[in-house]
Amino acid sequence: MFGPYLPRVKGVNSCGEGETSQMLITVNPLPVAEGSISALTGGIICQGDTVTYSIPEIPNATSYIWTLPDGATGTSSTNSITVNFSTTAVSGDITVRGVNSCGEGVAITKTIIVHPLPADAGAISGPDVVCQGDAVIYSIPEIAHATYYKWTFPDGTTSETFSNSITVNFYTISASGNITVRGVNHCGEGANSTKFITVNLLPAAAGPISGPTTVYPGQTSITYSVPEIANATSYTWTLPTGATGTSSTNSITVDYNMTAVPGNITVRGVNSCGEGAVSTKTINFGNPI
After folding, report:
1. CA–CA gap between residue 19 and residue 8 (Å, rounded)
2. Does the structure show a pLDDT above 90 at 240?
């Protein structure tokens, strides 16, 4: 049992005993650990979470000492503490003990499992420059702790996968822009990786062909042309049978020999990504004046 106590003392020799002296002594107890550490929020603990823990008040404690797992921060001298689990926090023990002027009591311990966020996404592999109409594979190394992958794409593109490798379809409406990806799990999302994709355009549709519609066999040096075609670096012309002429521009000079027959003149724009939509003009033969 704890005091107060009143010890007495007196001197003794062969002649007898001396006067008694006494002192009142109070023995203060150490804090007594009771109960267990509980969280005010339930469920799993994730990196990035903030959680409050508490214990019942410890008898004889005037203060409390808390210790936390690596990467967790929080300070308190009471029976309650708010803990911030950083993005580098790891699993470990939370402990608390009562303190008073006589010393520290026995620690109470709770083991905390900290679930990690997905790691940062690595570099995206795949071409930086594509063409409208292409289907291209992009991938990244597997992301630690990710259960699936969240991709975003430039306008006008599509892909349907949640893995670390995807096939992206670039359509004729696709525009240049960023591909991004990040890992996701039940705790949240990791840092994303970004790759800028330049989408080269197909040539625009060719406009109407200017030039005579009716000609006659043997007529030469007839000029046909179209307005310049957006995104075209060259032009492809076709002529009726028996007509001759070559050009890689938006204008062509045609000779109709005596064996030429009625037919179509066509033209389309061309670039490194392919050909645009064709324009057609029907040529008829008349009689020379």
Report:
1. 10
2. yes
